[in-house]
Write a structure and sequence with these properties.
alpha+beta, Rossmann fold, 2 domains, two-stranded antiparallel sheet, two-stranded parallel sheet, globular
């Protein structure tokens, strides 16, 4: 949603912001550029919120490099066929974009090993419960508690 999850900007503005270091991570994914403003993350962390980023494997690598203390979770589809059905069901991407995503998926899935946690997204309620458990565990991590004290 514009202004909530996404802020759509002209390519020139995006390039200017990227060159100025305004993004924690940027990535070109399936022909589109995405970025996470550093200010958004910093403001959330300072406010004591759990900041969740929905980024691809390129973005995940960038976040890990920029913020070694970031907790990373790989959301795994149950199968390529299930991924295909989900992409088709969303009706947000052109057929060629879906095919490119499906072609890239096996290589991206292999990158799960770079993450701290893996959540299988075969059942929505179970996947959400898994994410909540990760957040709860990380909030209780002693080194994080010491950092807040």
């Amino acid at each position: 949603m514009e202004g909530v999850q996404y802020e759509f900007v002209a390519r020139e503005d995006f390039d200017r912001r990227r060159a100025g270091g305004a993004f924690l991570e940027t990535a070109e994914v399936h022909g589109h550029w995405y970025g996470t403003p550093t200010r958004f993350v910093d403001d959330g962390v300072r406010a004591g919120r759990v900041v969740v980023l929905d980024v691809d494997v390129q973005g995940g690598a960038s976040v890990r490099a920029a913020r070694p203390d970031a907790v990373t979770v790989f959301i795994l589809p149950p199968s390529i066929d299930a991924l295909r059905q989900r992409l088709l069901g969303r009706r947000t991407d052109a057929p060629d974009v879906i095919e490119r995503r499906l072609k890239d998926a096996p290589g991206e899935i292999q990158r799960y090993k770079d993450y701290d946690y893996l959540v299988m997204n075969d059942d929505l309620e179970a996947a959400v419960a898994g994410l909540v458990a990760i957040v709860d565990a990380e909030r209780a991590r002693v080194r994080r508690l010491r950092a807040r004290a």
